[in-house]
Design a protein that fits this description.
With about 350 residues, this protein is of the alpha/beta class. It has helices spanning about 1-10, 25-35, 50-60, 75-85, 100-120, 130-135, 160-170, 190-200, 255-265, 285-290, 310-315, 330-335, and strands at about 40, 65-70, 90, 155-160, 180-185, 205-210, 215, 220-225, 230-235, 240-245, 270-275, 295-300, 320-325. It has two domains: about 1-130, Response regulator (Rossmann fold); about 155-335, 3-Layer(aba) Sandwich (Rossmann fold). One of its GO terms (cellular component) is cytoplasm.
């Protein structure tokens, strides 16, 4: 695995692998000595496992860490915990040369390494030394606006660095949140079920992995299953959630564009589009369609993104009604559901 990752990375002339470590203890010693810009870290290692090593990195010498993850339920749970501890993203461990996805995995790995290396990195607040914690402000308390609800659909697109951002937003919403939420997070199929369960355990709203053809309810969050698209449809007088395969040729499955375009077509001005941290521009065309039908759009700000790619695309296209720090996103979403 170490050799495979090194070979992939060094195909890019802008990337130099300065060392490889056989276990967590050796890895920590190498990081202290060589001070690399980015670390890839396996969860399963002898002597010191990846989560323990990650805690040491974040507390002692914080820097961007990409987890190397098995595409299993156990691997998903450990990876999500790692991202809560400060890892910026993950790459799949299945890197067999017979895989049809090997080229895409290689390109994604190199892109992620270069993108996170350029960003100013801050460890999660809980992992920082107590003396520095006072410099950061606590997230604003979500306050319910007065007036009537005019938007009851929230469609969210998110990718690199997304799990902690989504968790921060959902954990800030009240149990009687007056809209339903649909989320397209770029994530493998093995990860989306554990992701939904983890979010449900820390949120007052109900969070679940979406099933094909189920009612769309306020106060419920639907996570798109990995490898499939999530769409909102209207049948008669009711809205329903559907899980579909098409378009099969979409660059991402689930796709933020497919999700947000379906919300635009189904509900128009009743929908709010939200684009959070991620590479690329998935969600741009969906937000464009939503705005054309009278909906509103929020983008996460540069300073609080792991990668300011997807939000930047809608900001640069002048489609964002508000650009919001992740600490304030729950309040902004709530505010935008009500008549101004």
């Amino acid at each position: 695995m170490r050799k495979a990752l090194s070979t992939m990375l060094e195909k890019d002339p802008e990337i130099k692998v300065v060392a490889t470590g056989r276990n967590g203890e050796e890895g920590l010693d190498l990081i202290r000595k060589l001070q690399p810009d980015v670390v890839t870290l396996d969860i399963e290692m002898p002597r010191m496992d990846g989560l323990t090593a990650l805690r040491h990195i974040m507390m002692e010498m914080p820097r961007p860490v990409l987890m190397v993850s098995s595409l299993t339920t156990e691997g998903a749970e450990a990876t999500l915990k790692a991202m809560e501890l400060g890892a910026v993203d993950f790459i799949p461990k299945q890197l067999s040369k017979v895989s049809l996805d090997i080229v895409r995995i290689e390109e994604s790995l190199r892109s992620k390494v270069k993108e996170v290396a350029r960003r100013k990195f801050r460890a999660p607040r809980a992992m920082r030394p107590a003396a520095r914690t006072a410099e950061t402000r606590a997230p604003a308390q979500v306050v319910r606006p007065s007036g009537r609800v005019v938007r009851d659909v929230v469609a969210v697109g998110v990718s690199t660095g997304g799990p902690p951002a989504v968790q921060k937003v959902l954990s800030g919403l009240p149990a009687d949140f007056p809209a339903g939420i649909l989320i397209a997070q770029h994530m493998p199929a093995a990860f989306t079920g554990p992701f939904a369960k983890r979010l449900d355990s820390v949120s007052k709203v109900t969070v679940k992995e979406a099933e094909d053809v189920e009612p769309f309810k306020p106060g419920t969050v639907y996570i798109a299953p990995g490898g499939k698209h999530l769409v909102l449809a209207v049948r008669g007088s009711r809205m329903e959630v559907r899980v579909v395969e098409e378009p099969a040729n979409a660059l991402y499955k689930p796709s933020a564009n497919v999700l947000i375009e379906s919300a635009a077509e189904s509900t128009g001005r009743r929908a709010l589009g939200v684009i959070l941290t991620g590479m690329g521009n998935d969600g741009l065309e969906g937000i464009r369609a939503l705005k054309a039908r009278g909906g509103r759009a929020l983008a996460q700000n540069d300073a609080s993104c792991v990668v300011f790619g997807m939000p930047k695309a809608i900001v640069d296209a002048n489609l964002a009604d508000e650009v919001v720090d992740i600490d304030d996103m729950a309040q902004s979403i709530m505010k935008n559901l009500y008549a101004n």
